[in-house]
Amino acid sequence: MPPTTALLVIDMQNTTVAMAHRAAETVAAIARLSERARAAGVPVVTVRQQDAGMVPGTEGWRVVPELAPREGEPVVDKTTPDSFLGTDLDAVLTARGVTEVIVTGFATEVCVDTTARQALSRGYDLVVVADGHTTSVRTGADTDLVPADRSIAQYNAIYRTIGWPGRRIRVRAAADVDLGAPEGARNVRPA
């Protein structure tokens, strides 16, 4: 049976995008993928972070205009890096019969990675959009952090090689994400 897919757009809010590495390129890649998803009837689910720096209703909390949810599209608000924890994301996906999530957003090594792994643990197949996730710009004060380009590349490599029994995991550029018929060859790693 072909997977029923949903696109997750995680934390692409004004505050996070303002600090993002390659922000314009990442927003553009996600925006093009979102338009393709909508045209193919694939649900686009927007996930928004709420915390002391991103208070609901403020400009910093709002999703960037290029990625703003359309009327009637699901929006999930969260308070942790895990888009499933304490939210209705699982219920939103289940109600739509989703079996596979396409993950995009900010920040690669925090909310994107946590949500991707939780999706796998909850039984969803996974597509990580290689050019559709980003992390913060690294400054001199961030000397212990891996440079942003290397962090993004590392997480793409992890998801290309990670094994998760019974799950399909793929890493694709936004332009190469197949939103139609399922791909013939899946990257399924044995248990």
TrEMBL record:
Main enzyme class: hydrolase
Xref: Pfam families: Isochorismatase
GO molecular-function terms, A-Z: hydrolase activity
Organism listed in the record: Streptomyces tendae
Entry keyword annotation includes Hydrolase: yes
InterPro entries (alphabetical): Isochorismatase-like_dom, Isochorismatase-like_hydrls, Isochorismatase-like_sf
Isochorismatase-like domain mapped to chain residues: 5-142
CDD domains: nicotinamidase_related
Residues spanning the signal sequence: none
Keyword Cytoplasm (UniProt): no
The protein's name: Cysteine hydrolase family protein
